[in-house]
Fold:
Amino acid sequence: MSGRSFPVTFAAMMGPFLVWIGHFGVVYAINGAVCARVPEGATLFGYPMSATLVAAATVLAMAWVAVLLVMALRGAGPAGHVASADPRRFARWFVVAGAGAALVAILWVGLPALLVPACG
Structure:
């Protein structure tokens, strides 16, 4: 049995939500920076700069949460060190439910930023 502490286990359980929070901040930082500093009509790979950067951040965040979801479904992740099955089952359920909620939240934040002009 490893000596993993409660704060580390709790942070691992909150992983999907932490990714969503980070994505939320990044999306708004991108839009703010593009509106404040980038010239009107700037493009990246042929698309508006803000839309391209938000799309990249959204795909990255969704992939990260998907990895956390797969780990939880396979039984890896938080509370893997706990000897009894009940805390492990709860931690796994919490991460799976949190990953599902985080995927929806990431789409909820990312889609409007992709559909509406950044400075419009």
Summary: The chain has a mean pLDDT of 84.
